[in-house]
Design goal:
about 90% helix, mainly alpha
């Protein structure tokens, strides 16, 4: 029987083997290699971070919004079947 750490490591290895994960790594390496792209990426990240920190939503509102989105997504999926 595997323990939780073995399962977590197996999941981590599986994620790292995904083509989508490898594509993100390649994109990050390309951005890091280009000084202008890296500066833009860091500036964008900082702007987004500041925006999120200044947001007036509290945790309760975030959970409520998340539930609403899940409900809407579920309704949408049902109509697509």
């Amino acid at each position: 029987m595997s323990n939780i750490y073995d399962l977590a490591n197996e999941l981590s290895r599986g994620i790292r083997d995904l083509p989508e994960y490898k594509a993100v790594l390649a994109s990050k390496e390309a951005i890091d290699a280009d000084a202008d792209a890296k500066r833009y990426s860091e500036t964008t990240w900082l702007s987004n971070k500041k925006f999120m920190e200044s947001s007036s939503l509290d945790k309760c509102q975030l959970k409520t919004n998340k539930r609403k989105c899940r409900t809407l997504l579920g309704s949408y999926k049902e109509t697509q079947l």
